[in-house]
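Data card: per-record layout.
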Amino acid sequence: MAPKSRSASRAKLMNPSPQDLRDLVLDYLMHNCHTSAARAFMRECGVKRADSDGDATMAAVPERITSEEDLLALEERIAMGELRKEIRDHILTGRIDEATELLNKHFPSVLSVPMEEDDSEPPSSRRFAYLPATSTDPVHLALNLRIQAFIEAARTVPLPYTPPGSDTPLLCPPLLLDSTTKAKPGEGSEEDEDDDAEVTDEATEQANAQLLHRAQSLYSEVNGLTHPTDRAMYLAELGQVGGIIAYPVPERSPLEKYMAQSRREAVAAQIDSAILHRANRPTISRIELYARYTGAIWSMLHDMNVNVPPRNKWPANVSLPPSRAGESKPAAKEFTSIEDVIAATKKTNEKETEEVLPRFDLHLFIDPPTDR
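The structure for this 372-residue chain is written out next.
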């Protein structure tokens, strides 16, 4: 990078424009599928189309004049976010078949295109791009969805999901066998109880037959995997997950962790990450990437016991991130000679206090201690 270009980038970093900050917020909203909030934010920021001459009407608030191409890109991201949210909601409510149908229709490469190994070095502009934390191999994703569908089929207790910001849970899928609807003794005549018992037994047999068929199908698919490592990994997974059919109510069994909402969340996060990866979109928002990068740099400096530079050398409007009590103190030094003791005493007498650069703690940065 040329010196002039580097200076310009540094100046922009230290003094971001209001538009830079608005773009950061808009990217966060779109990345996290807050599409309604993104549209409202765009209206609030005065995002509008430019006319054929590139001009626009003056407004009461500063407006961002956006080209037709940029606006189309924004609308595509919003539309993609709405689809991603719909797929995620389907997975989080246990509707795996509906989620798979949407994936095949709108993002077919997520589940069907074989992985292509690319050993070439990424371009310098994307060298620090954040890579997905989980596998994006379509074979893995398809199997994970099918395993989750098996888990949902074995569910006997409804597990409702309420989206953030809502008081109403989404509609749960029907259960193969609902443990709450079993016939209760003492209700109705003896003849009715016998009929209910027969219906319940028949439903249980049918449900177990369906679960057994799903399990056999999964084992057949896993045994057909070409990579031995994948085959061994998924056979071990099925050995655990398949055990849920041995319990009448798996939600109250030693394997209850497979029935938890956290399992759905993990699958939904992996699928969403794969959608973004296949669309050549970052798998985390820019502000999250910046926060992680900042945290890594400050932690490295702290672990290296780098001292805080003199304040007269700090750039304007710069301050240290908040830290916990005692975190900025240097590591205790062991004195091995009388010269070390004399040098340390001299520093103290000259009031040359050392302070190590603190780590960057995002939680403290957002909600710093009140006594600071």
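Known properties of this structure: The chain is about 50% helix and 0% strand. Confidence is low (pLDDT under 50) at residues 54-62, 117-127, 180-197, 348-352.

See the next section for split statistics.
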